[in-house]
Design goal:
Blueprint lengths: L1 H15 L8 H5 L6 H8 L3 E3 L10 H18 L2 E10 L2 E9 L2 H4 L4 H18 L12 E3 L5 E3 L1 H14 L1
Parallel strand pairs: 1-2
Antiparallel strand pairs: 2-3, 4-5
Bound molecules: zinc ion.
The site of zinc ion (ZN) has 9 residues, from helix 7.
Length: about 170
């Protein structure tokens, strides 16, 4: 008797306990919605983005970590970093970064060394992307196939469902 009561009460909650998703604050205020790529450009004024990232947002943290280091390098040595492209290639992240500087600003430092440090920063980000889901940012792995992709288990299952459904 008690069991049947509990069951009916949980079924009742299942239907009526669900509330509609809250309206996001920016929609209520009628504000322009900035993409994560727009925010990236806004947050790193010392970095010259020729194009904004075309990757999934799962890699935002990795890209931001690289930008924090590049910005620090830029401020320390008075050089400008130009980000030509941030994209996915063969499943993992690619960042194409050039350095612009005037020799006299560098003083005793060699431009090649500073550029080497920048390329090390980029390489670290690219290596990290091998283990981070491009969609959601959780721990993932590289799945080979027709297309190489880095996904967590859940996003890979979702990807398989979509690609199978599309054919
Ligand atoms: Zn994921």
């Amino acid at each position: 008797m008690a069991d049947s009561l509990d069951l009916s009460s949980s079924a009742y909650k299942g239907v009526w306990g669900r509330s509609p998703p809250p309206v996001p604050t920016f929609e209520r205020k009628g504000m322009k919605v900035l993409s994560w790529q727009d925010k990236l450009e806004q947050d790193f004024p010392n970095i010259d983005f020729i194009t904004l990232p075309s990757t999934g947002q799962g890699w935002e943290t990795i890209i931001r970590q690289a930008c924090v280091k590049l910005q620090l390098l830029s401020q320390t040595f008075n050089v400008v970093f130009i980000v030509n492209q941030i994209k996915e290639k063969y499943g993992t992240l690619r960042m194409y970064v050039d350095m612009r500087c005037s020799e006299h600003d560098l003083g005793e430092y060699d431009a090649d060394i500073i550029d080497d440090i920048a390329q090390d920063i980029v390489a670290t980000a690219e290596t990290s992307s091998r283990y981070i889901c491009e969609v959601c940012g959780k721990f993932g792995q590289l799945y080979p196939g027709g297309w190489y992709i880095v996904r967590c288990k859940e996003c890979y299952e979702e990807y398989c469902k979509q690609t199978q459904g599309g054919t």
